[in-house]
Design goal:
The protein is mainly alpha-helical and 263 residues long. The protein has nine helices and two strands, in the order H-H-H-E-E-H-H-H-H-H-H. Strands 1-2 form a two-stranded antiparallel sheet. Helix 2 packs parallel to helix 9 and helix 4 runs antiparallel to helix 5.
Length: 263
Amino acid sequence: MTAESTVRGGDPGQQALELKVAAVEAALVDLEIEVETLRVEIDNFALLHHQRLGPMYVHLDELEALIAEAVAARSGSPEDIRRAYAARSVVTPLPDLDLDGGWSGPPPGGDGQAAEPEGPRRVRPGREAQRLYRELARRAHPDLTTDPEEQQRRSAFIARVNDAYARGDEAALLALSAEWEAAPDAVPDPAAPDRAGWLQQRLAWLVARIEQLAEEQVRLESSPMGRLLKLSPEDPDRLLEEIAEQLLARVAQQQAELDRLLS
């Protein structure tokens, strides 16, 4: 529904309501896009944080356990022994790790074979993918129609759009854009027994949905990965590099401390 297509008749109150509903619908779509974009970025950031930095965190845990054990062996103190047990309890099995280049050796797998190397994945899809995603979401969003069958069709289509965007797949988004252009865009029947009453109900639902999305946005932003991502929202990939550099410095410090205790 658009303001241009629905502002008909001579009732100024209903015309104003039509325009208000159209404006709130547009605001809802924009917020849906914003929240989905944030969700994709946080999911990608969390995945890459685990993939790139997980081995370093494991290595730090191992070094801290070794340091605690070395201290306990020297002192024999019950408190130091307790700390050593506690440090060891959080350590996961340490894989072979090349701190300059990541994993050294094949990843775990059923056949023990090394997987094909993947290209570096980015936290945020590229600008063209972002543009295509926003354009498709604004045109095909299910909330732009009240027809149940059309909502179902749009929901299935948007699910494919979201999946392609999450992968940063520009070619898939271009293909989806062409598909939408060629598909018939069902228009809901504007006639209703009580148009004004329907508009009021529609407006109430839109406002409630916007409030729900705003709460979801706050939840995402306040999550551990959301807070971390806010440190560098424009270049999250660089943020991961900076964290990796900090972890490498901590590894070097812990290794030096362990060497001192064992010397």
